[in-house]
Structures are given as C-alpha cells and as structure tokens.
C-alpha cells in the first residue's frame, strides 16, 4: 500500500507544480515567470522519470546511462544550433 501512497503524493506534487506555472505568469514578470517555469518543468520531469517510469528502483548504472544519453542529446542539439547559423 505504500506504493499507492507515494504515487498519490507525487501526483499531487505534479498537480501543484502545474498550477504554479499559471500563478507564475499571472503574478510575476514574464522573464521571471519563464525562468521559474523552466525550473518547474525540470522538477516535474525528474518526478515523472523517477516514480512513474520506475527509474528510482533501477540499478544505478542505468541511471548513469540515461543521464549520459541526455547530456549527449543536449550537446548534439547545441552543436546543431551553431551549425545552422
């Protein structure tokens, strides 16, 4: 039953983070709201990967492999953006 409790807590956190994005744009300047929205999106992605895709319970080497692949995508994306101009 503990799994259902954790899933519920994570789900409520995801809902709160989604509502916070609306509040950011409603009450803050655009640039600050955009920065906070990007941070919030990163937190939401981490929660989804850790709990709903069960990465939290996988061996650490798989987590390192996923993080390395993510960094490779970022580096290749940055290189591609420089080659366009």
Protein model, in words:
It is flat, with a radius of gyration of 17 Å. With 85 residues, it is mainly α. It is 87% helix and 0% strand. It has helices at 2-27, 30-52, 60-84. The model has no long low-confidence stretch (mean pLDDT 86). Helix 1 packs antiparallel against helix 2 (30-52). It starts with a helix and ends with a helix. The chain folds into 2 domains: 1-53; 59-85. The longest helix is centred in the first third of the chain and has 26 residues, at 2-27.
Topology, pairings included?
Elements: H1 2-27, H2 30-52, H3 60-84
Summarize the structure.
This protein is mostly helical.
Helical stretch count? 3
Give the number of domains.
2
Point out poorly predicted stretches. none
Strand content: under 5%
Q: Give the H and E element order.
A: HHH
**Oligomeric state of this protein:** single chain
Rounded Rg: 17 Å
How far from one another are the termini?
54 Å
Please describe the structure with a list of short key phrases separated by commas or semicolons:
single chain; about 80 residues; mainly alpha; 2 domains; 3 helices; flat
């Amino acid at each position: 039953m503990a799994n259902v409790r954790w899933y519920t807590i994570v789900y409520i956190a995801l809902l709160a983070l989604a509502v916070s994005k609306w509040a950011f744009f409603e009450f803050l300047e655009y640039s600050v709201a955009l920065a906070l929205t990007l941070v919030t999106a990163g937190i939401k992605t981490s929660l989804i990967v850790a709990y709903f895709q069960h990465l939290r319970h996988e061996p650490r080497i798989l987590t390192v492999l996923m993080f390395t692949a993510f960094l490779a995508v970022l580096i290749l994306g940055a290189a591609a953006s420089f080659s366009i101009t």
